[in-house]
Design brief:
With 231 residues, the protein is α+β, with helices and mostly antiparallel strands. It has 2 domains: 111 residues, 3-Layer(aba) Sandwich (Glutaredoxin); 105 residues, Glutathione S-transferase Yfyf (Class Pi), Chain A, domain 2, CATH 1.20.1050. It is 55% helix and 8% strand. The chain has a 4-stranded mixed beta sheet with strand order 2-1-3-4, covered by helices on one side. A hairpin with an 8-residue loop joins β3 and β4. α1 runs parallel beside α3, α1 crosses α8 and α4 runs antiparallel to α5. The structure holds glutathione. Glutathione binds next to α1.
Length: 231
């Protein structure tokens, strides 16, 4: 059974969605990132980057156990393990990976910085807020163009590129953007939200989701000295 080290944030949720889509048995090990659990030695042994998600598959390639971090790598691994949600033809595969990388290198980091400067920074910095609000809008426009021409990001079929992007669009909707301004993204979003595996994936650890403002102790773990200590 796969061990999933995770927390109910967009990077965790994309893997929860994929595991549910594939029906792979897995055990969830919660890593409360506001409480500093990402710095525990057991977790650092799997990921030196001390970020969720990470998995350990005792039945990895060639029958050996495999530990993996980085949500994009995990999604590719699970897609190849199951033969699902990554096109089999070469060109289709690269198109899918292209949109997955667009999420990993663009949507995730930019939306994350938007959240940081709007919700967590000790002062409201107009330049930073404007910069990341613009980037979130620009990335939505890129997605809108693609999804006005194609049912899903990789083409005709739902794939790991959609799973990776969906939780981030969900997190920005009604905050950085009004999804009604992006009708094709909105159509795509509604379709994915209605999938039973999406509903189940979003329920994983949902009861642990942070409500209300982040406390100073949580901010210290995520943005203070603890976060930047050498390990
Ligand atoms: N590129 C990484 C990013 C992972 C990431 O940033 N995870 C956040 C939660 S969404 C985290 O674990 N933060 C803990 C910390 O900053 O200490 C991935 O996609 O897996």
């Amino acid at each position: 059974m796969i061990d999933l080290w995770s927390w109910p944030t967009p990077n965790g949720q994309k893997v929860h969605m994929m595991l549910e889509e594939c029906g792979l048995p897995y055990r969830v090990i919660p890593v409360d990132i506001g409480a500093g659990e990402q710095f525990q030695p057991e977790f650092l042994a799997i990921t030196p980057n001390h970020r969720i998600p990470a998995i350990v598959d005792p039945e990895g390639p060639d029958g050996h156990s495999l530990a993996l971090f980085e949500s994009g790598a995990i999604l590719i691994y699970l897609a190849e393990k199951t033969g699902r949600f990554l096109p089999q033809d070469k060109a289709g595969r690269y198109v899918c990976l292209q949109w997955l990388m667009f999420q990993m290198g663009g949507v995730g980091p930019m939306f994350g910085q938007y959240n940081h400067f709007v919700d967590y920074a000790p002062e409201q910095l107009p330049y930073a807020i404007e910069r990341y609000t613009k980037e979130v809008g620009r990335l939505h426009r890129v997605l809108e163009k693609r999804l006005s021409e194609s049912p899903f990001l990789a083409g005709a079929d739902y794939s790991i590129a959609d799973m990776a992007t969906f939780p981030w669009i969900r997190s920005a909707s009604g905050r950085a953007v009004d999804l009604a301004e992006y009708p094709s993204v909105q159509r795509w979003f509604a379709e994915i939200a209605a999938r039973p595996a999406t509903v189940r994936g979003l329920e994983v650890l949902a009861e642990r989701r942070r409500r209300g403002k982040m406390t100073d102790a949580q901010k210290e773990q995520l943005f203070g000295a603890t976060q930047f200590a050498a390990r």
